[in-house]
Amino acid sequence: MRLWLRCCLVVYCLQLAAVVMATAEEMPPFEKRSGLEFVSPETRRLQEDDTSNPGMLWVLEGERLWREAVGPTGPACAGCHGEAAASMRGVAARYPLFDSASGRPLDLQGRINLCRSEHQGAPPLAFESQELLALTAFVAHQSRDLPVTAPNDERLSPFIENGRRLYRQRLGQVDLACADCHDERWGERLGGSLIPQAHPTGYPLYRLEWQTVGSLQRRIRNCMIGVRAEPFDFGAPELVELELFLMQRAAGMPIETPAVRP
Amino acid sequence: MAAEAAADPKAALERRLGRRDLLAGVVSVATLVMVRPAVARPSLDAAVALFAGGREVQPGRVRFDIPPLVENGNAVGVAITVDSPMTEADHVKRIALFNEKNPQADMALFHLGPRAGRAAVSTRVRLATSQTVVALAEMSDGSVWSSSANVVVTLAACIEDLL
Amino acid sequence: MRSIVNVPKTARAGEVIEIKTMIAHPMETGYRTGTNGATIPRNIISRFVCTYDGEEVFSAELFPAIAANPLIAFTTVAVQTGTLTFAWTDDSGVTETTTAEITVI
What we know:
- Chain A is mainly α.
- Helices cover 46% and strands 7% of the residues of chain A.
- Chain A contains 12 helices and 7 strands.
- In chain A, strand 1 and strand 2 form a beta hairpin.
- By secondary structure, chain B is an alpha+beta fold.
- Chain B contains 3 helices and 9 strands, in the order H-H-H-E-E-E-E-E-E-E-E-E.
- Mean pLDDT of chain B is 83; it is low at 1-7 and 16-33.
- Chain C has a single domain (3-29, 43-104), classed as Immunoglobulins (Immunoglobulin-like, Sandwich), CATH 2.60.40.
- A 5-stranded mixed sheet of chain C has the order 2-8-7-4-5, with no helix packed on it.
- Chain C is elongated and about 60 Å long.
- Chains in contact: A-B, A-C, B-C.
- At the B-C interface, strand 4, strand 6 and strand 7 of B face strand 3, strand 5 and strand 6 of C.
């Protein structure tokens, strides 16, 4: 075979492999299933009824915090953003976003804390604190039922790539990667529990196991402890990159905050 | 990091606890281990007998809705409905819930009366493990009725405990 | 403590209405151990009372077996236009109260 023909063939095969790999990593739209489809009917009913969904207690608290002035000089969130139902609609469906100041992706709770320090003259809220969970749940709730939009920002590409790498990296003494369960074995069982696809669309959510609302970061750390790996610290860049990748993987799925999961 | 930890485990632990202090509010680090009461708890039959105050407990008239299999024992939805006209002359006075294997037999005690209109209550309970749960209704005429259910409780696959 | 109560705004006289209540509370059982091996002290809502224009129409005694962020749903007869008051009391005697108005036609 002529050299140029052979080169073309190699290039073609490489491109084909790249396309196949890319589509194999991403979930085809028809396959995407919310974690809601993997829970018991009772738990599903809990999420779908706002008067019994315990997560709504945090959304309610978040609404109160939204209107509360922070300290003697700082404005309330409402002072700049007005009614959250209008100004925050669609926000959670687009996060994490690229933050020019830090040159890194920024998640919703990071954005809230940035607003606090830059515009409200207040210290950041602690990770997993009731206030931060309530505010994040309230803001994310304003995007409920809206589809997740994959970021169209070139600057995020290297971070999405890192998130994808972390998602496929084997971890811990149990030596499992996220993909091993959530891409390859969703629908099967781990112990008595059905394995979901691990979409982040319902966070912050009320987890029956926690008996409270918690963040995606807490859930990922929980999984890492489960495979006996040293979990990333709250706020670690790896956790934000994982969230960024997971949101991209969940593109098109509706936001469910506050979800209820076992 | 691992080498440092090996050289000075106490410092490593302090660093870890220091990081934990960042978490304001209560992050649940409680283990699934429960403190067993020093005195064995009353049996389910004893708790039911105490509620009935010596009267006969008859099965019936109570409809007890509780799922037979729950994916997490921390929040099990229950609904109890009692067949009763709820009039001044004939109504449900109390509805009680007891269990077999939690540290304590009592779960809830509801006080009703003719103002309720219907004898229907719902709540969410905790079940420590697979067990029998009993719903009792005490009527205005003193009679006591019951319904029981067996519930299988599964646990979460991965524990969050860092220790 | 944040609470959500669900009461119909209007009802016909004599109609039996459904009321759903939920309040944020950890309902700490007193049976769990913390990191240092010490028992986490019990802290639960032990009593819930609903009054209708001052008259008690429903109450509940709660025990540690009631799930966190307790939901209590019950019924009452819509007798007159008025105020429904809901009171949750914890072990230390602290009471949280909220009200809802109902118009009875």
